[in-house]
Amino acid sequence: MTLPSSALRAADQIAYLDHAAASDAGRQYKHKLLAALDPRPGNAVLDVGCGPGTDLPALANAVGDAGTVFGVDHDPAMVEQARQRTAAFPGVEVQAGDAHALPLDDASMDRARADRVLQHLADPARALAELRRVVRPGGLVALAEPDWDTLAIADTDTTLSRAYTRYITTSVVRNATIGRQLARLLDDTGFEIDSVDATVILFRDYRSAETILRMPSVAQRAWQAGALDEQAARAWLARLTNCPFLAAFTFFTAIGRVPATGGLVAPGLPSPLQVAVRAGERVRAGERVRAGERVRAGERVRAGERVRLGAGSAAGAGVGAAAERDARALRHRVVRHRL
Ligand SMILES: C[S@@+](CC[C@H](N)C(=O)[O-])C[C@H]1O[C@@H](n2cnc3c(N)ncnc32)[C@H](O)[C@@H]1O
């Protein structure tokens, strides 16, 4: 729910994100979003626009030793920070990448989340199409975005408060009203909508609001751009610091589900692509493996599903202990391909 500022240095941006995540509102919605995303042990989970890695440890704990968490961010400073913070989690992998062209295979993820990322993107619909591509049928996507058009700052000069909000929506945040568009965007991209939620983020003291909303620097940019009258805006800022403070905006979350049937994950392949894994077949780390929920001798599996090798997979000679040992190495190399 943070307001972006292109002027922020990487360290300031990270401190800013940390502060937002540690706030009561930040902790509450992240907790609820994680529960709604419902990552399971053994899942592969993507956090696109992962920032400094704030949510990666919780995801790693949820998926456990058999799962994998991928953090992707286009900012090298964020990637570096996220890697440092998750160094103790062997199942977490952070890489540089663009939400518009994810560096992941089709249907390779069980879950994905994008937390306050769409508001910044040149093409949010394209990013959602990418999430649709990389999440397997039946998998879930969690989105969380503010709606800056709803920002209401209490003051005697309502006109100035409105002009300030309008400046944010027209000149500060690229997709300022994305929060209210989440359900529509999910539907347009072919997701089923599991849930939509709206929370009011309320600030009752100037200091905590200032950390998130950055009124002085944004107001200054606005009067320099001619969007606010400087004298009136300075008086407005002075009143905000001296009077009982109140500001609020609406924050939206939505959970989308990739339909379990219909719509092939791997374009060009027949759906479902039925394959049989034969007894005695060997699966080695680094080898391209067949798509399937589990590799068991003789078991039929479907294209677009993720291969998960674990306890219970040792049905055939070769597809067993050795494969289990290599399961982690294999997990993110799973590809769809004609058998
Ligand atoms: C407001 S921060 C949120 C970070 C994190 N999701 C969180 O909740 O703390 C937005 C993040 O999206 C990243 N981002 C912006 N555009 C992106 C893109 N095109 N591809 C990948 N990441 C992007 C930024 O670098 C930043 O780390």
User: How would you classify the helix and strand content by structural class?
Assistant: alpha/beta
Proportion in β-strands: 15-25%
Major sheet: order of its strands?
3-2-1-4-5-7-6
Per CATH, the architecture of the largest domain is 3-Layer(aba) Sandwich
What percentage of residues falls in helices of 4 or more residues? 25-40%
Helical element count?
Answer: 12
The CATH superfamily label of the largest domain reads: Vaccinia Virus protein VP39
Bound molecules: S-adenosylmethionine
Q: How many strand segments?
A: 9
Descriptive labels:
9 strands; 339 residues; Rossmann fold; alpha/beta; disordered C terminus; binds S-adenosylmethionine; 12 helices
Q: Could you characterize the architecture of this molecule?
A:
This protein has 339 residues and is α/β, with parallel strands linked by helices. The protein folds into two domains: 10-153 and 174-204 and 248-257, Rossmann fold (3-Layer(aba) Sandwich); 265-339, no CATH class. 36% of the residues lie in helices and 21% in strands. It contains twelve helices and nine strands. It has helices at 10-22, 24-37, 56-63, 76-85, 124-134, 158-172, 178-188, 206-213, 215-224, 230-242, 321-325, 327-331, and strands at 44-48, 68-73, 92-96, 109-115, 135-153, 192-203, 247-257, 274-276, 300-302. It has a seven-stranded mixed sheet, sandwiched between helices. Strands 8-9 form a two-stranded antiparallel sheet. Bound molecules: S-adenosylmethionine (SAM). S-adenosylmethionine binds at residues 2, 17, 21, 49-51, 54, 73-75, 78, 98-100, 115-117, 120-121.
